[in-house]
Amino acid sequence: MPRRLAAAAVAVTAAAGLAGCGASGGSGSGGSGDQYAIWDPYPQFDDSAAWVKLLQSCGDKAGVKVKRTAFDTTDLTNKVLLAAQQGNAPDVLVVDNPVVSTLADAGVLATTDDTKIETSGVDPNLLGAGQLGGKTYGTPIGANTLALFYNKTILQAAGVDPASIKDWSALTAALAKVAATGKKGITFSAIGTEEGSFQFLPWFWGSGARLDKLDSAQGVAALTLWNDWLKAGYAPNSVINNTQTTSWQDFAAGNVAFAENGTWQLANAKKLGFEYGTITVPAQHGGPAPAPTGGEFVTVPTQKDSSRYAVDQKIVSCLTNSDNIYTTDGTLSYVAPAAAVQQKQAAADPAMQVWVDAVHAAKGRTSDNLGTKYPKISEQLWTAVQATLSGSKSPADALQAAQAAVGKG
Fold first, then answer.
1. How far apart are CA 266 and CA 231, in angstroms?
2. What's the CA gap between 188 and 201, in Å, rounded?
3. For 247-260, what is each residue's pLDDT tens digit?
4. Most exposed residue of 50, 201, 230, 237, measured as fewest CB within 10 angstroms of its CB?
């Protein structure tokens, strides 16, 4: 296990996903006796927050005291790997979903067969992010994903009905109409990091392409779509360096019709100085494209004393029951992982229906049993996007180079 842990540590930074923010929290150690340690990636929540009170309440119901420690996302994963090497992992770990397969492959996480955590009510496409080699390692606490926000004023002036945008050709036609009014059509994040891959994936998967063959004709079509938008002036040149935050700022300034962004912007969307709406990212030939899922899994690290799993199971079940997860996902701006709670979210806020639909079509970045292969594939994908949008390579050449680099790994 130490060798596998060391290899996992190298992959952690590349695998770290998009959820979790803020400064790193304090240090912590695994639980002992009737004290159970819980680590999470939510340092923005202090002891007065509903999330922390829920952790304490779930510990009380399980008959134990909970010691909670928060870290930022990447720091959390490194700390868990180190703690596992020292035999001092926490009892419950809330971790960004792309990292689950890395930790599982390193032997850090117990399976749901070991812990008896129930996952039957979870949407299979969301659960897939926590599966490797036919085994499941935890359960999602919620999911965020991508859709298209739009500026109603700009679309009305351009004569575009957002309900008519069902595929790529309809979207491109809409962008052309917007450009004719002097506005930019669409903004997104194409930066050379995981954020760039995350934003490109709905178009890549929406073409029918697969991550195990980056240079397929479908993948080339997706990259050509983005490149054509840039060359036509429908997207600003700033997308090459845009993070999801700076892309949102472009949209919030009021000069762009569409912005690809995520559920985490819902609170900011309510502060916009114009009316907005949302539609799912369209697939090439119609219907919602599969967008990548963000969000965390509640997992149980492997324990030397397997008798602790019984209490772990009680804590995890409490954290993820329908009432608690409804409240938690509302706080995090996540879509719940189970259909019954998703329906409750959409009933409370009809604007959530687009996000529920997007999550139904979504898939985990490490799905298709890619597991620990994903970080290298993603790096080559964002490198290809950068090479194309900067004009140094054609979409076909960039993706061929990306696939060749992955094959050498």
1. 30
2. 12
3. 999 999 999 999 99
4. 237
